[in-house]
Specification:
43% of the residues lie in helices and 16% in strands. It is built from 29 helices and 29 strands. Helix 22 packs antiparallel against helix 23. The protein is of the alpha/beta class and 888 residues long.
Amino acid sequence: MEKQFDPKSFEPRWREHWRGLFAAEAPSERSSFVIMIPPPNVTGKLHIGHALQTALQDLLTRWKRMQGYNALWLPGTDHAGIATQLMVERQLESEGTSREELGRERFLERMWAWTAQYGDNIRQQLERLGASCDWSRERFTLDEGLSRAVREAFVRLHEEGLIYRGEYMVNWSPVLDTAISDLEVETRTVQGKLYYVAYPVEDPDRAGAEPERVVVATTRPETMLGDTAVAFAPGDPHYAHLEGRHAVLPLVGRRIPFVADPAVEAEFGTGLVKVTPSHDPADFEIARRHGLPAIQVIDRRGRMTEAAGEELAGLDRFEARQKVVDRLREGGHLVKVEDYVHNVGFSDRSGEPVEPLVSTQWFCDVSGMAERALEAVRSGALTLVPPTYEKTWEHWLANVKPWCVSRQLWWGHRIPAWYAPDGRVVVARSEEAAAEKAGTRELRQDPDVLDTWFSSGLWPFSTLGWPEETEDLRTFYPTDVLVTAHDILFFWVARMVMMGYHLTDRSPFHTCHLTGLVRDAEGQKMSKTKGNAVDPLELVEEYGADAVRFTLTILDSPGRDIPLDPERMAGYRAFGNKIWNATRFALTRLEGSDARVLPELGPEGLAAPERWILSRLSRSAEEVSERFAALRFDEACNRLYHFFWGELCDWYIELAKPPLLGRQSADERPRVGEVLLSVLDRSLRLLHPVMPFLTEELWHRLPGREAIHPQTIALAPYPERRPDWEDADVEARMGALIDAVTRVRSLAAELGVRRGQDLSVHLWAEPDGDPGLAAFLEEQKTVLEWLCPTGDGGAVELSPAPAGASRDLVAGVNLGLVALAREPGAEERERLVGELGKLEAEIGRTRERLANRQFLDKAPPEIVEGNRRRLAELEERRERLAAGRGAR
């Protein structure tokens, strides 16, 4: 085996080896376990959150596959309407053209060419991370099968009256020229201005007199040109006298009514709000309640309309804002301007502030579907992990609004609706069906496409052939677990659950594991702007895929975001190196022997160290599987880490050295080689779902592993609990031995005993403790002599220590240490003199402190007592050093 642990030397080989090995069967006599990948953007680049979710999904799939399940991890990508179209439009802009100049057909040709060029990127990146997907079933949300499913879902929902067309307030991106979902809006806190504007109150009885004026505060004075009312809270004594009267809109002169509406909070601002139905969601609802007209003064491109007046028409909305403020000031309507910090929605794709606009769109009434999704969580049919998200789920679905499913894009699933010359709208599964319904072929298809989340909402079953009753659908649906980020709980997870129940009468999965967001080491959200974003493939290049996977998995604690410090990855790369070296040692020492991995191994006739490691392996296998099943990946990885690093590498490998190096006979320690190789085999299989590359590489080097599986560790059985291996007594006694040796080593260090210095170690069982412990220590004397730092001239004595020895009691074992006299070398003598001098100085300072009356009077009692204990310890240490030095 190579001395150097280098993941780059073997990861590409196993990626190639695994291709084609993970195809699931349909039909199958085995029980299925299914995970659907949350489809990344087809032309996108995986970020660190994708790497986290990939690691967890692959872990579960490999684990279940090794347990004998017909495991399917179905991969695929999303056409990502806005993001992908934006990339191509930017490319066209750099070429001096646009999609409008190309026309829809030629533009879509460019879109498909772009997708063909970059569409394989996601697969390559996932394979770098070790994803064991069934690539034969890879899907794309715009492929023909999924397109058919989308049309079927739309038509069914329309036939049921749940999809309809109408006017509503939407988030509008002027740059993208489309409505966007709430998920695509990034709320930012910005420093703005609050403008206080005086509105004259119309009063026919006071003709010619100075009119009463009321003050309204706004952050968007340019929208006031579209005001159609001024509202106040019902019963507000300050404005009750205005009910039924009118204000005169400044700059425009339009009469607008005062209305009392419960949406207004009397305590907020001046207690009055301007009502601009075309440009504010709350105002849109107020207008509906009071039958107010809507006047649009900002268009789809963020420019002022003719309704804003000839002077402002065509200006950008922000340019118009300043002109409106100037005119208000000139007309004496601007009372004051204040700095104001508030939240503003920005398009996360194009970066500009969104514009609330009333637009004719297609909507889906999901209120009934939401009830079933709520009941699924309440009844336990669907489990959210962690359960803290249940309250949020309840709140959002109980207050769900109609879903705007149309987008003003060209890339996506075109809405299956056609318009006849007489204005009729026909929804059908195909243009031929629409023509038959309409009785004419003179039809114009709706130019809009569906929201990307619509096709994503069908993902768990459309990918398996729905609406046809395919063999895949019968075998793999419903799926089992969804692993995704918590920030798309409603925009994707809830929609999948709603669509799944409505269209298949079943929840698409029974468990949803919601990961936290991966942040930087200081807990800051990662972003390219801040310069703290990390590329997971760069981390793979530096630390290896296994270290990246293990780090992300062990940090996945339910309900918490993940602070990612690359130093952790360096630490878990060292963990891989530890396993590599342990395996290399075992294979080197067993080279030429007939020891092999044993498919079956019993504890009969084995010595205590072998029975101990088998018992610990059995319990670890049970604990890891239990934690995997509970989706507590952090706890499972901690158990794996401590078993591998501590119990296997640090202790059992050391315990195995005496027989492997000829210090113990085969009669005293039988079958150590077979036990070591068999434990390595099972331990590597135990770790494989988390660190697949390293475990595959090492497992293939074990002699006899072919009897477990001829081809790959990924299809070998996952280790289970072996009750016949478990031995509580041997675990307790070996635990006592390990604790005692650990304390001997630390006490020797405290005494200043150098490596190789002779030391007499005395160990004897506590009389009132385990009655079998004394005999056990006697049986393990050779092992104790190997493990304890006695030097060449020291020894381990299983008897009480002589007077003057340094003593302790650990886990029922008394121990005593005596440093044996020998002539120190010049270097050691110099060290002892220096250390003794330091002790004398510290003793002097501590005595001086305790002799200080002010310190004794003012310091807390526990501090004074701590100093007294410290003085006693220092003086005892000095006596030991002085005695040792004097003996030499």
